[in-house]
């Protein structure tokens, strides 16, 4: 059975997440490709987020990922759509912004990426969460959504679910 994603629930989840980060003084950043800043937007929709949100990078093309620190060898060896690339993205942004947590996300939404068609699988998204010296990498299979916006929110929910496992109450 396909998972149903609800925008208001996802927004509520991120509101709770941001408040938790603020209460614990945990700094976070993102390097986003497929979600093109949606995760950063959801985090910063909560008042006071500036206390914990260090900044973000939107690296929609391979060139941008490389300019922001992802090794071209990682992309060449594993492809831009891989746990390895997502992990490199998470670690690059975490280090660049000196944050406690970095999130990297790459993948394909509802259509094949013409620039990376050999590795592009619609609905398959890779993300990683760098928590200090640990990196946790995941792959999510997103069912067909009715818009790119809903794909982004679906990925945000998948990231939220895993991220909260790495932030102890």
Outline the structure in words:
The structure is a single chain. The protein has helices at 7-24, 38-44, 62-67, 72-78, 83-96, 148-165; strands spanning 28-32, 53-58, 101-107, 124-131, 134-141. With 169 residues, it is α/β, with parallel strands linked by helices. Strands 2-1-3-4-5 form a five-stranded mixed sheet. α1 packs parallel to α6. The longest helix has 18 residues, at 7-24. The radius of gyration is 15 Å and the shape is globular. 37% of the residues are buried.
Query: How would you sum up the major sheet?
Result: 5 strands, mixed
Rounded radius of gyration (Å) = 15 Å
Structural class determined from secondary elements: alpha/beta
> Portion of residues in helices?
40-55%
Uncertain spans: none
What distance separates the N and C termini? Answer: 31 Å
Number of helical elements: 6
Could you give the order of strands across the largest sheet? 2-1-3-4-5
Number of strands: 5
Strand content: 15-25%
Give the tags.
about 170 residues, alpha/beta, 6 helices, globular
Topology:
Elements: H1 7-24, E1 28-32, H2 38-44, E2 53-58, H3 62-67, H4 72-78, H5 83-96, E3 101-107, E4 124-131, E5 134-141, H6 148-165
Parallel strand pairs: 1-2, 1-3
Antiparallel strand pairs: 3-4, 4-5
Quick overview of this protein structure:
41% of the residues lie in helices and 20% in strands. The chain is built from 6 helices and 5 strands; from the N terminus they run H-E-H-E-H-H-H-E-E-E-H.
């Amino acid at each position: 059975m396909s998972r149903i994603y609800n925008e208001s629930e996802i927004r509520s989840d991120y509101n709770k997440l941001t408040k938790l980060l603020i209460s614990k003084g945990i700094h976070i950043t993102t390097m986003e490709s497929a979600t093109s800043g949606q995760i950063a937007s959801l985090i910063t929709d909560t008042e006071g987020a500036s206390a914990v949100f260090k900044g973000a990078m939107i690296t929609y093309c391979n060139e941008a990922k490389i300019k922001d620190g992802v090794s071209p060898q990682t992309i060449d060896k594993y492809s831009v759509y891989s746990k390895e690339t997502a992990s490199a993205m998470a670690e690059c942004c975490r280090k660049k912004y000196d944050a406690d947590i970095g999130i990297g996300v790459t993948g394909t939404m509802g259509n094949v990426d013409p620039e990376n068609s050999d590795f592009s699988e619609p609905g398959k998204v890779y993300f990683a969460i760098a928590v200090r010296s640990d990196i946790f990498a995941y792959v999510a299979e997103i069912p067909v959504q009715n818009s790119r916006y809903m794909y982004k929110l679906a990925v945000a929910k998948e990231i939220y679910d895993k991220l909260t496992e790495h932030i102890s109450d």
